[in-house]
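Posting this for the archive.
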Amino acid sequence: MRFKRFGASLLVAGVTLLSAATPAMAHTELKSSDPESGASLATPPTQVKLTFSGPVALADNPIQITGPENASWTVGRAEVAGTVVTAPVQAVGPAGEYTLRYKVASEDSHVASGSVKFNLSAPASSPSSSSAAAPVSSPAPATSATPAPQAEETTPEGLLPVWLWIVLAVAVVVAGLVVALRLTRRKN
């Protein structure tokens, strides 16, 4: 009977540990984007919109869009309104798959980053070729030769992933059960 109480206590402690750790590990994630992930567009967007699960602040160079043949879109000044980040874009490049990479900071200052892939079914022409009367502005200079982050980089720096916390909690519960079994066998 003593072992059952001890085992039940360990189980309750393990569940409490997991439920207490989960809110602390919850960080801002991308909920939706425009263009959507996997979308196929006939014409390039003039603005991108990212909606997150919580309030965010802008990181340095928060949005980048790259595509085939080293195409790099000019991204204007990004603005944030609570959970929504928007930025005007100027598309140039051939038809094909494009990747929008983002990096923002959540309220607790952890960085959330990732990518959204979409397809452009027709080449994006520069504004100077589509309208002769429009003023031509020089594109923004390349800011970095560092490779852009991949979609797998969603765990903020310095934070353990959720699955690791679950494994640790299960290990603590199993270790407690092993100790309890050994103690009850010694008494018998």
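Confidence is low (pLDDT under 50) at residues 128-158. The longest strand covers residues 56-66.
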